[in-house]
Amino acid sequence: MALQMPQQNLLNGGQVIVDYLVREGVPFVFGLCGHGNIGLLDALYERSSDIKTISVHHESVAGFMADVYYRVAGKPTATFTSCGPGSANLPIALANAYLDSVPFLAITGNVPTSQFNRGAFQELYRHFQADFPSTVRSCCKHVFQPTRGDMVPLAIRQAWKTMVTGRPGPVVLDVPFDIFKEAAAEETPDPHEWNANISSRCGADPEGVTKAVDMLLAAERPVILVGQGVRYGGAAADLLKLAERLQIPVASSASGLGALPSDHPLALGLVSRGGVYHANHATRQADVLLALGVRFDDRTSSSWLPGYSFTIPPTKLIHVDIDPNEIARNYPVALGLMADVRTFLRQVLTELDTRKNTSKGANSRQSWLAAIAGYRREWEALVAPGYLDDATPINPQRAAYEIDRALPEDAILVSDIGVHHNWLLQFCKPKRPDSLIGSMGFGPMGFGVAGVLGAKLAAPDRPCVGVVGDGAFFMHASVLGTAVEYELPVVWVVWNNYAYASIRGLQRGYLGGRELATDFKHPQTGLPYNPDFAAMARSAGVEGVTIDRPDDLADAVRAGIASGRPYLIDAIIGADKNPGGAGAWELPGHGVSAPVIGGRYRPGS
Ligand SMILES: Cc1ncc(C[n+]2csc(CCOP(=O)(O)OP(=O)(O)O)c2C)c(N)n1
Ligand SMILES: [Mg+2]
Fold first, then answer.
1. Mean per-residue pLDDT, 222-236
2. What distance in angstroms lies between residue 511's CA and the mean position of ligand 1's atoms?
3. What atom of ligand 1 comes closest to residue 505's alpha carbon?
4. Which residues contact 150 (CB under 8 A, 6 or more apart)?
5. Residue 124 in contact with residue 84, Cβ under 8 Å?
6. pLDDT digits (tens, 9 = 90+) for 47-63
7. Does the CB atom of residue 479 touch ligand 1 within 6 A?
8. Interatomic CA distance for residues 309 and 101, integer angstroms
9. Which ligand 1 atom sits nearest the alpha carbon of residue 444?
10. C-beta of 579 in contact with ligand 1 (< 6 A)
11. What is the C-alpha to C-alpha distance for residues 385 and 181, in angstroms, rounded to an integer?
12. Which of 111, 140, 106, 141 has its CA nearest to residue 128?
């Protein structure tokens, strides 16, 4: 398509940005208009056959869509937001992407350079002129703010490179109003020169690889712990090879679930404060723990209290991460290696080829695996009754199970934040690295409500289901309109427990039941209150049904997927049970939760 050339046949700032996105192969931009970004919209208008603009009804929706798009497609996209309040709706999604190491380019509008520091409409100026960058500095890898048209080419190519190299993360390109229209360059930087040929897949120090292999071969109770670095680093196939070759069981942080298919005999599942017994009891007894792309946050680590998730030391930790800042952040390391996880795994496999007798260690590991199988049986016996509970409202464990079993193998489940997420983490059986997507770093409500739309755009042929709290859905119900406007056949299961139940659970667990501001009640009757979500969906042109019997839930999910239309299931689910796990969680000043199985492990006792 012919571009409209401004003065001297130069592309303007907006055109350079959009052309660069097109040359990077970005299929979508997500955002919301404002006077601050009409220049960019104009450039997008010109290229509308090359890049599709998705207009949403809340800026955070745009950010969550871009975020989950990347988690599924492995490719970054961009968002556009206006100056002032429009962009101020975005940091929640930026911070979420930042903490979960997910890249997207946030193009934020700002006031015209000629008006800097005059207090123009929507300028944040009282501390420093046009100071949106300060608003987002803790929420992204870098902020670029070109203040002349000819600064745009440099800014866009550097922004993209910063976003995708090293530990990935979101980057902000903050563009004053006039710069979108100001003459910028004759042509756009070529991604092949500035970005495509850069690899950050660095390997570990070769001596470190030798040491790691020595430690793994000598270990009697080794465990591999995987996190996001394996899942999104494309390392799942190499992980499988290593685990099978050395017969080492694999536990996952919440962000690593599905890196090894859940039904693989060596897959232990979730290690966490709410982790399953066989995972937690294996990782905390391990003599060598190989941690791949894991942060050891408080939930994974049972608030770092020894003996619940981990006991490091005496466990010898081999910690591999592309970001050295995460190594030895929370636990001492026997061996810390900065490396891309996939490259490291390949180095280890190559090193193993040079060793003799690797099967000896694998055979001696059978007693360790047998012990873990025993822990697994104990866990399964503990949770068995929950699968059979026929009660209405639906038992949450049963709900998680019914939703999971209704999903075909290629389905993508995007969870929101809340108690439903904890249940899903325990009882879903993800088969692929992207089967169960959740937010673990920042945990913003709305992530799943909106994110499922991004998943669908990334994988139009795969069923995409968002399981979301009633609190979060009400907060972000505008997604109904977006699904209709862009014909996105996603299924939302609203986990309707008439409460901000995860927080009410804390009031019950830690505060003696002093409940305030955590449930939804009708003012006159005192009965649980919520809008009729199914009717709300229908009013927006989305199919909507209400389910309160466990036997109907799986069929409803299947029907939603089969409908080929946006579909909402309002599922009435009990809130009186909390997902108990084998770990613990400390809320400093309020105490420590008790595990439901196994207690605290003390080495040597
Ligand atoms: C934007 C945002 N506000 C507040 C919180 C704190 N928070 C975490 S979970 C939760 C309750 C969520 O309620 P709901 O969506 O109904 O999910 P449930 O826990 O009931 O499954 C709240 C308020 C948050 N994580 N994000
Ligand atoms: Mg709720």
1. 94
2. 18
3. 19
4. 183, 184, 185
5. yes
6. 999 999 999 999 999 99
7. no
8. 23
9. 26
10. no
11. 64
12. 111
